[in-house]
Specification:
3 domains, 16 helices, Rna Polymerase Sigma Factor, Chain: A, single chain, alpha/beta, Rossmann fold, five-stranded mixed sheet, about 350 residues
Length: about 350
């Protein structure tokens, strides 16, 4: 029986984790729940799963991760506000099932330096796929990681065509049902850029050896290319319950958590190169990742401000990544990464992004 704390329990990841646990009561026990503000839903979850320890907000989530007796902490919080709970879970020696990619990307060496080998288990479908494929060989045998991207709702459009898209169109993701920021990030491919940084930090593979390929069916979740020319791919229908279940009980698999592919039906899978001119976010993210220090925090925070501005009708769709690029180029990072420095960089990035947006809107 694995004792589980779920942070972000009322969001998509949290609710699907509870689905997995609900179907496997003999395998998992929920011992803590935290959410951002939805107190009524947390109370309902706590009553159903007989949970005594609940919290609201990032500070209480961090306290649960640190103080509640648990085997696994699932961090499903959205945004860099999840950094504190991530650090608390690692300091307490918990296995961290990480769906909050921003905390790793922003925290960088503050997170990786604290984590013991195997302590972080990725929950993003792409990184879960890589973790599964990596079991086919040794680290020395890995040549390349290949992350797949659906391409979002605007796959195949030129930059000129992207200037005319609407917020409603950006939220019409062809595969996944996600919140506003993550769905928009998938449309701009900022989310894939963040995942490239995450892959580098999780698996210690150089950015030059991490590629992105567009795969609109979202069935192959990512691949690992080995030194002998073999490529191992992880494929399954797009259902987050599978990587969540692996995060909760890694390296064991939970039987029946997802439906397998139906090999009795004819099907085709497409793979195509990423259009870096129309979607420059991945290349920008690699530059930011190589720069390190507070640059990833600026990338992430400026993007959140730009996404809000787009949905408010203040800027066009291509201007989201343009704003992020300009903020990154204007940033002067300190030599050493600290928590105080990260907080200051995020404040600066949000203010700078607003200045850039205002100049674009004038």
């Amino acid at each position: 029986m694995r004792r589980v704390v779920i942070l972000g329990s009322t969001g998509s990841i949290g609710e699907q984790a509870l689905d997995v646990i609900r179907a496997n009561p003999q395998r998992f026990e929920v011992v803590g729940l935290a959410a951002g503000s939805n107190a009524a839903r947390v109370a309902e979850q706590a009553e159903e799963f007989h949970v005594e320890h609940i919290g609201l907000g990032a500070d209480e989530a961090a306290a649960l991760a640190r103080d509640v007796d648990a085997d696994v902490v699932l961090n499903g919080i959205t945004g860099s506000i999840g950094l504190g709970p991530t650090l608390a879970a690692l300091e307490a020696g918990r296995t961290l099932a990480l769906a909050n990619k921003e905390s790793l990307i922003v925290g960088g060496p503050l997170v990786t330096g604290l984590a013991k080998p195997g302590q972080i288990v990725p929950v993003d479908s792409e990184h879960s796929a890589i973790a599964q494929a990596l079991r086919s060989g040794t680290a020395a045998e890995v040549r390349r990681l290949v992350l797949t991207a659906s391409g979002g709702p605007f796959r195949g459009r030129s930059r000129a065509e992207l200037a005319r898209v609407t917020p409603a169109e950006a939220l019409a993701h062809p595969t996944w049902d996600m919140g506003r920021v993550v769905t928009t990030n998938s449309a701009t491919l900022v989310n894939k850029g963040l995942e490239v940084i995450e892959a580098h930090l999780l698996f210690n593979v150089a950015y030059a050896n991490i590629d992105v390929v567009v795969h609109p069916q979202s069935v192959v979740h990512s691949m690992v290319e080995f030194a002998d020319g073999s490529t191992i791919a992880q494929a399954s229908p797009p259902d987050m319950r599978l990587p969540i279940s692996l995060g909760l009980d890694w390296p064991s698999r939970v039987a029946g958590v997802g439906a397998p592919l139906d090999w009795t039906r004819a099907t085709s899978w497409e793979f195509e190169p990423l259009d870096a001119e129309a979607f420059p976010a991945v290349d920008l993210a690699k530059q930011v990742g190589r720069a390190g220090r507070t640059y990833p925090a600026v990338f992430n925070a400026a993007n959140e401000e730009a996404v809000d501005a787009f949905h408010e009708g203040r800027i066009g769709f291509p201007a989201i990544v343009d704003t992020v690029r300009e903020a990154v180029e204007r940033h002067e990072a300190p030599d050493e990464l600290t928590l105080d420095g990260l907080a200051e960089a995020e404040r600066w990035a949000r203010a700078e992004a607003e200045r850039i947006i205002a100049s674009l809107s004038a």
